[in-house]
Please model this.
Amino acid sequence: MWRSVVVAAATFLCLHVGCDQSKDGSATPAAAMVRVQLNWVPEPEFGGIFAAQQDGLYSAAGLDVDIRKGGSQVPVAQLVASGQADFGVMTAEDVLTLRDRGGDLVAVFAIFQENPTGFLLHESNPITTIEQLWTSSSTVAVDANPPFVRLLNAKYGGKDLKMVPYTGALAGFLASEDAVQQCFITAEPVECRLRGVPTRVLSVATVFNPYAAVLATSAASAAKRPQVVEAFVRATSEGWRRYFAEPSKYNPGIAALNPSMSLEAMNIAAEMERPLIVPADGSPIGSMRLERWQQLERELAQVGTIESGRMPSAGVLWSAPVGTASGATATTP
Model:
């Protein structure tokens, strides 16, 4: 099946993008340029993308992929919607928020099946649940007003909490046994572990569990180049399969792109993220279900992030048009 996908994609690209001539005069399909914008620096959370590039899966599928690192100030959703990037990694909330405002983003692949956001506490902290945290007088470093904070406020009140800006740094957390901060479950906790600091993580997924690290493209781009989307999704899915089969093969290359995270930390993170990324029901990595997008839509409307009744989840999942390589997509019914 993989070979048929490659052949079909190559044929489409030759007809619609252009072909070069090989030495014997036969047509060789020109690779389709694909710009992938990450929302953070290279880390194991993007392991399958880097594995696909390292093993030549993208080039074998007729794609010339340029992976661009991101950061906290990179507006990934806007870059994709405006055509400055072909695919981008973003939150599911960003996808629906932009669609609510008239954007045409469609989701093609969800890296995380379970929300990897959490709250990091010292092991000595007596708080053991998010409800206890949100009804305490703790000082919590957190992003400015994200949807999950508004949902927690609506559910538990949070009137006594002291919220301070979350920077991603650990200095403040390490300085106080009572400190609590937002975290990416496979990042800050790993660093604390390597420093010998006992910690505990309260997962936000227990109260707010959208897909995370969603790969999206614009509907216009998907309609214009469906074979490119199909080839990219399939190569990325195979990249993730290979990454989890042998993370140590690919992490050195990722570490070379991000000297701020050690190779040891990346190897630990790869194992920690596996249950958050590999679907528990046996579905392919990257799979999505519309019901979860509809649930997120209701939650975002509840806290006023999107306008109630607008239904931005309608059409959010990309489907391969009839006549593409196999008709298969990264989504499931």
Remarks:
- Residues 2-114+210-302 form a domain with the D-Maltodextrin-Binding Protein; domain 2 fold (CATH 3.40.190.10).
- The longest helix spans residues 226-245.
- The chain has two domains: 2-114+210-302, 118-206.
